[in-house]
Amino acid sequence: MRNLRRVLENMGNAVLELVWAKQVRCQGCGDLSGADEAYLCGVCAHRLEELRPPESQRCLGCGNPVEARCICKRMPHVAFSRFAFYYQGPVRGIVRNLKYHAVTCMADWMAAAMYEILLREDWLEDVHALVPVPMPPKRMKTRGYNQAQLLTNALAEQTGLPVLDLLERTRETPQQARLSSAQRRENMRGAFRAKVDARGLCLLLIDDVRTTGATLEACAAALRQASASQVYALTFAAVSRPVEGKD
């Protein structure tokens, strides 16, 4: 009954998108006073600019700024990882609205920000195809869509790159939200496999948020096992806290 209620709620939200412009509500903070064409109120739009990662003074592998801990060792099978925004403030609202409230119209807008990263990093000449991080079947049935797939499809339209359905889940995994970093890595270990051979391909993994990198690493490991030459990763947001206070 709970799953049916969630499906019906998402269907209702999807229909609402067609009849009620999302500009009425800020997708960052939920404010009803209105939003501009970028789906955000003025305050959130200004805050969003402050949440872009620096183009310099960062790790060239994982993209984390110098004041945060490098996580390259946690993702040995990911050649490079980048993200468009820090997962803070209005970025949380944007992601949650896409992920849990069926505001799927945000996917194109989010993908545009990710496309800017691809251009900046000059990856388009290297990458052969885009690969979305797959969702567990039970969660897919409940939610009705995979936000990573929506972002990937939108990026494919902007880049002209093909989307390859290469990965599948080997088992259902608990949601990562309340797990520690070590628990996330164990939770994702061996959770994916490649459906077909990926020999010689440079692939770009797409997801909405990079937290500890455990999911991206598990996906990349499966693709490398299928003989992919390299795996890059791109997310809309990333949790990237300062070194102080981290365990």
TrEMBL record:
Gene3D superfamilies: 3.40.50.2020. Coiled coil: none annotated. Belongs to the ComF/GntX family. This is ComF family protein. The lineage of its organism: Bacteria, Bacillati, Bacillota, Clostridia, Candidatus Alectryocaccomicrobium.
